[in-house]
């Protein structure tokens, strides 16, 4: 039977050559209190998105961050509700 690379050779035994693991994992220290939040509130997520969007606008259009925040607020403002759906508005009789 041919010798396969993943089978141990008969001349070497596991006790004769101790190997150290190549990756050592250390547990996180118990004193750390900084935990990643798994669940964030919608307000927090919306605020972070608003800030990132404003930073994008400021960088892309070479404007101040304050002006970009105002623009982001106007673009991200809730839309007014309408009594007519979009499909009904474009329907031709």
From TrEMBL:
Name under which the protein is recorded: Uncharacterized protein
Recorded superkingdom: Eukaryota
Organism phylogeny: Eukaryota, Fungi, Dikarya, Ascomycota, Pezizomycotina
Region (Disordered) residue spans: 1-39
Biased composition (Low complexity): 9-22
């Amino acid at each position: 039977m041919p010798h396969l690379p993943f089978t141990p050779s008969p001349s070497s035994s596991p006790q004769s050559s101790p190997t150290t693991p190549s990756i050592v994992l250390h547990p996180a220290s118990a004193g750390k209190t900084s935990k990643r939040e798994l669940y964030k509130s919608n307000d927090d997520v919306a605020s972070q998105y608003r800030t990132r969007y404003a930073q994008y606008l400021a960088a892309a259009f070479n404007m101040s961050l304050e002006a970009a925040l105002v623009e982001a607020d106007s673009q991200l403002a809730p839309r007014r509700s309408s009594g007519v759906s979009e499909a009904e508005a474009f329907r031709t009789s």
